[in-house]
Amino acid sequence: MQIGLEKRVRNFIFELSDGKKITKDIAAKDKAEALSIALSALSTYSSSKFPPPERIEITVSDENRRRLATMRFIYEIDLAPDTDAENIALDGKV
After folding, report:
1. Omega of the bond prior to 51 within 30 degrees of 0, cis?
2. Which residue has the higher pLDDT, 37 or 54?
3. What is the largest CA-CA distance in the chain?
4. What pLDDT is stored for residue 1 in this prediction?
5. CB within 10 Å: which end of the chain, N or C, has fewer?
6. Among the listed residues 90, 93, 91, the one whose alpha carbon sits nearest the alpha carbon of residue 52
7. E strand spans, 18-85
């Protein structure tokens, strides 16, 4: 039974970029699951700090490094001139 499971799981490669590149191998049963995991990772990473990077993207490739998709988030946050973004916490408290 475990052998069958191993045959169904494929390796995919994520490259996350927000000025620096992070490469991560993941296992997923198919392309759809790999893309779902990538979107979740992109959302989690981009919301883990404030302010978020202006632009962040993740590229998903198969085990042969053929690109399957690139997903991007682009943020535009206009702060008031007297606001110090470095001192704003995610919960809105200063």
Report:
1. yes
2. 37
3. 62
4. 38
5. N
6. 90
7. 21-28, 55-62, 67-74
Q: Among positive and negative, which fits the CA dihedral 61, 66, 68, 73? A: positive
Check: CB of residue 13 under 8 Å from CB of residue 65: yes
pLDDT, tens digit, 9 for 90 and up, residues 41-82: 888 888 787 777 788 888 888 888 889 899 888 888 777 777
Average pLDDT for the chain: 77
**Is the CB of residue 14 less than 8 Å from the CB of residue 31?**
no
Half-sphere exposure of 32 (CA within 13 A, CB side): 0
Beta strand 21-28 pairing with 10-17: antiparallel
